[in-house]
Amino acid sequence: MTAPNVIGRLTLLAHAPTRAQRDAVFPRADEAAEETGLAQAALLAEVHALRKVDRLWTAPEVRARQTADALAVALGLEAHEDTALADLNVGDWQGRSLADLSAHEADAVGAWLGDPEARPHGAESLAQLRARVARWLEHGTAEGHTLAVTHPAVIRMAVAVVLEAPPRAFWRLDIAPLSLTDLRWHRRWAVRATGVDALTLPRPLRNPA
């Protein structure tokens, strides 16, 4: 459990964009990040908000690991995998779009959108994702600044957990690729900011050549 007297900061970074996101399909575990997005991710080490990071965690999927590795060298850190940060497992729906599923499996999609316990894809329910993310937050972050590269679904759920929001709040949160969510711990978790476009954040001024 997170120590009550620790003052900690947790920055959740959504992985670099993927083809699956552009095509609006559920990604597979081996879905890679796009090269242009990884190049942008490498630049984030220059952002003021990420210049003092004490530890770096990443989800195990390829797209998250690639994003973390793009940052690790510039930050002077090693990226450590944590399965608790893994993406929502949608089982048989991987590689399919919500539009396609709605056209052919409308009842299943309706159950999934309306019932957090539903698992029509045969894998992880939203309730199970919430429990997983809540456990990870409960064990929390060490003192200082932790950066965790993970997935939009995990970040959306983390915000919902911290705000003690009802399950339907998950669907009302929008997390874009390479956006930052800033959580702070001092006796309890609090949301400082969410969905911040990291590429627009201030960077140090460069001396002219």
TrEMBL record:
Query: Which InterPro entries does the record cross-reference, listed alphabetically?
Result: His_Pase_superF_clade-1 (IPR013078), His_PPase_superfam (IPR029033)
The family database entries (Pfam families) matched by this protein are listed as: His_Phos_1
This protein's name: Broad specificity phosphatase PhoE
According to its UniProt entry, this protein's organism is Nitrospirillum amazonense
